[in-house]
Specification:
Elements: E1 15-16, H1 26-32, H2 42-59, E2 65-70, H3 73-84, E3 90-95, H4 98-109, E4 113-118, H5 127-137, E5 141-145, E6 147-148, E7 153-154, H6 158-167, E8 171-175, E9 194-196, E10 209-214, H7 216-223, H8 236-243, H9 255-271, H10 273-294, E11 309-313, H11 320-331, E12 333-334, E13 336-337, E14 346-350, H12 358-374, H13 381-393
Parallel strand pairs: 1-12, 3-4, 3-5, 5-8, 8-9
Antiparallel strand pairs: 2-10, 6-7, 9-10, 11-14, 13-14
Helix pairs in contact: 1-9, 2-9, 3-4, 5-6, 9-10, 10-12, 10-13, 11-12, 12-13
Bound molecules: pyridoxal-5'-phosphate (PLP).
Amino acid sequence: MDKPDVGELKPPERVLMGPGPSNANPRVLSAMHTTIVGHLDPSFMDVMDEVQDLLRYTFRTENEWTLPVSGTGSASMEAAFSNLVEPGDTVLVPDNGYFGDRMAKMSRRAGGEVSRVAAPWGEPLDRADFEEALTEVQPDVVGLVHAETSTGVLQSDLPELVDLAHSHDSYVIVDAVTSLAGVPVKVDEWNIDACYSAAQKCISCPPGASPLTLSDRAMDKILSRDTEPRCWYLDLKELETYWGSDRSYHHTAPVTNIFGLREALRVIAEEGIENAWERHHRVSGAFRDGLEEMGLEMNSSDDAWLPTLNAVRVPEGVTDDTILRRLVEEYNIEVSAGLGALEGEIVRIGCMGHSARPQNVLYLANALGDILEDEGVDVDAGAGVAAVSEGLQD
Ligand SMILES: *Cc1c(COP(=O)(O)O)cnc(C)c1O
């Protein structure tokens, strides 16, 4: 084997406005290159406590079982599904976006019998349809996606859906990957049984350690399972030996990611979680209004608008490929294409965490306006940019 000719790593400095990762606050990156300690180091025990407290603050919960799962958002997602779903359990999950599909796949692998409640991609679940599905399926476990990153849709009546599911004695798992720290998520007030997220979206930390919280009720179901979860690495009963009071080895914690997460959550707590929600709403709202003023169309209706991800219809006269390529090559901005049923139809523009700042949305609105005008698309770039700027003054 020849020695590979690999040079020094020089990643480009992108403005990350896609569906994640978002840009990390420089404080977070600094925390990650401090040093390494062992995962059982006495100093690390304090870090673990602090991270768990900060996660409880961010999730708005007193839940004892609140921890960062090693891995990306899909790891905390799989921890929730593979522990709560037992073989033979009936499971109801959404069919209106990419991540509902993933819930179905994970539930099946956990041995669940999966049913779906559908809505068109780009619309939230309809409450009457959901209620009908609950009555028909009588699910043991229900999965709900709070913020569907593939379609830019916020399930804004989530608390009502959770209550409905509870009236059928179901356990509710909520995907808050693109909502946590970006829009209000209130685990205790909304009685959510299990809620998971990721580090690299609105928490603005490099991917690798993913928030998860479980209610006492969910914990009881897991502790009284007849069978062991099929996955050893994400077995919460085992993980609890490390993140709970024992603090004994299960697997080596990704200490550097935990350092980063601690700092990212500290940044959020300093700002105040309510202020973080308000900032996403204000900055992303100004951006959305500007795009509409420019002549572009949003994919979701106003009441399902997701501040952390603006899904914009690709206008006549240009392709999503051209928009994405020119934004990266000429402006160093990353946004993303549509997935699944919306491939080629939309461009997904994230507005998350440290990326959700006035200068970023202004820069992106300018760049997008220039590209579209240059491609001959019928838009009024100047009016759009002016509207973003004006919206940011409010
Ligand atoms: C990003 C995302 C995930 C998966 O997270 P990864 O970090 O990519 O594993 C799950 N659900 C939603 C809604 C997401 O946006």
